[in-house]
Amino acid sequence: MSDLLSTGERKRENKGKVYIEIPGKIQKQAKEGIMCKSIVSKTLLILGVLALAAVPLFGQWQGDFRVTNNPGGTYTASYGGWVIAADDANVHIAYKDNTNVLNYYVRYFTFPIGSPAETSNGEMIGADDGGHHNSLPIAIHDGTVDISWYSHPLSHLYTREKNGSWGSIIEHGVDVDCCCPAIAFDSDGNLHNVFNHYSSTTGDAKGRSVYYQRKNSGASSYSSPIMAFDPHSDGGSSSTEYFAYYPSICVTSDDALHVSVAHNNGNLLKHVWSTDGGATWNNETIGGTNFARYKRGTSICHDSDDNLYIAYADPGSACQVYVATNASGSWVSTQVSEYTGNYSYWPSICCDTFNNVWISWDSRWGSGSITETHYNKYDAVSGSWGYDQALTLNDGRYSRYANFAADENGNVHIIWTDSRDDGNFEIYYNWFLGDTITDTIPPSGRDLAVVRILKPLGKVDKVPVTPEAVITNFGGDVDSGYAMCRITGPGVNYDKGNLEGIVYLEAGEEDAVSFPSWTPSGWPGDRYKVEVTVYLWPEKTTKDDDPTNNTRVEYATIQSAVQVDAIEVVKPEEGSVVDSMTPDANFKNVGTEAAENFYCYCEIVSQGYHTADYLDSVPVANLDPEEVKNVKFAKWTCDDYAFYEATFFAAIPGATHTLLGRKLFVVFQGTPLVGIAESADALRIEVTCPNPFISGTLVSYAVGYPISTTIRVYDVTGQVVHTLHEGELSGSGSLYWDGTDDDGAELAGGLYFIRIAAPGFTKTAKVVLLH
Question: Where's the FlgD/Vpr Ig-like domain (predicted)?
Answer without folding.
Answer: 708-758
